[in-house]
Design brief:
Blueprint (H helix, E strand, L loop, with lengths): L3 E5 L3 H13 L3 E6 L2 H10 L6 E4 L8 H11 L4 E6 L5 H6 L4 E4 L4 H12 L11
Parallel strand pairs: 1-2, 1-3, 3-4, 4-5
Length: 130
């Protein structure tokens, strides 16, 4: 069973990059959003909640912490990985329920290793593109 990921970032190029990387790992990106308001609406519209959300912090209309709080109120077991250049909110994000924090810029291997760790995936769970 493939794992489902939702990507939230105000930079379309970051969404595209994360989507490519995650798909190469055998994961499915089930949706994306450019800000927190769009993220909550898009999340609610999914028939099946994703296994993980990649969440930026600095976004228009609603930041990552506010968005995370709303998503966790809907789905308390949701795993959220912050991907943000704003490292000043690392401890706040983790205390509020984030499963991890990855500082931008990050490498492909940092993203894939962190996602696999949070989802507790082994090499047998997904394929690894060479």
């Amino acid at each position: 069973m493939t794992r489902r990921i939702f990507v939230v970032d105000d930079e379309p190029s970051m969404i595209q990059l994360c989507t490519i990387i995650l798909q190469r790992e055998g994961l499915t990106v089930v949706g994306s959003a450019l800000d927190g308001v769009e993220a909550v609406l898009g999340f609610k519209a999914l028939k099946v909640p994703p296994d993980m959300v990649l969440m930026d912090h600095r976004m228009p209309r609603k930041n990552g912490l506010e968005t995370m709080n709303e998503l966790l109120a809907i789905e308390p077991d949701l795993k959220i990985l912050f991907i943000s250049a704003d490292t000043s909110i690392t401890s706040l994000a983790l205390q509020a329920g984030a499963a991890g924090f990855l500082a931008k810029p990050f490498s492909v291997s940092q993203l894939t290793t962190t996602v696999r760790r949070i989802l507790q995936l082994t090499g047998d769970d997904t394929h690894i593109a060479s």
